[in-house]
Amino acid sequence: MKVKIAQIQMHIREDKDENIKRAGEFIDEAAERGADIIVLPEMFNCPYKASCFPEYAELPGGKTYTFLKNKAAGKGVYIFGGSIPEKDEESRVFNTCFIFDRKGNELGRHRKTHLFDIDVKGGQSFRESDTLTPGNGPTVVDTEFGKIGVMICYDIRFPEFSRMMVNEGAGIIIVPGAFNMTTGPAHWEILFRTRAVDNQVFTVGTAPARDVDNFYVSYGNSMVVSPWGEILGRMEGEEAVMLTEIDTELNTKIRNQLPLLKHRRPEIYKS
Ligand SMILES: O=C(O)CCC(=O)C(=O)O
To answer: Where is each CN hydrolase domain found (predicted)?
Structure first.
């Protein structure tokens, strides 16, 4: 089955309303160009800064959630809403992707499960756990294009997580992310291609546009990778909407010819 995936690689500013407005303009453009699925980047309504997350956080049903829901219904598209800081009744804050179908029904939500706490010597440092609470598992949603797994950024570094999604039947893994200028050039492409080849799935990474004046500089490089490990679409640092058509039959074709998933020996893998 053919699916047109639109990735919105946008700049993210201080002003939440401005971010929502820009996302809306790009969603309109993607829908006009025939997208079936539209994907936004990680933290698309909020600067990627731990101290901003509680300040920008919303309860489900809040302003950004309602915006995404209405856009999905209004344009008749699936929206994988990048991520936003979500708060719950106890004021805990999560990094959450809300997913809507063509009618604006919430299909699922993924709370980032592996928090990004790193300190690379002479490079990037970040501590999401200063303000965020982790989610506790993988997310797989049902669509007319089959099952789609959803994870957020750092989650992709944990191979077991993708495998859990594939074991649940996911044929595409959608990953809103925001790698930086230290880990991005080193690992982003390798990770998306490796997860695709290991699991014989499409991987879709969608990042903010690069803004060298930001506190956190996104690597950008939004990409779609085939189950054969081929890069089907790739941006650089620019702000743009990229459309890539994929064919979900490819998963089955590749799995029949190279039956990796059948050849697994889970009884001898201990971890
Ligand atoms: O894993 C990385 O290098 C980047 C992760 C990240 O930026 C994130 O999880 O938001």
So the answer is: 1-248
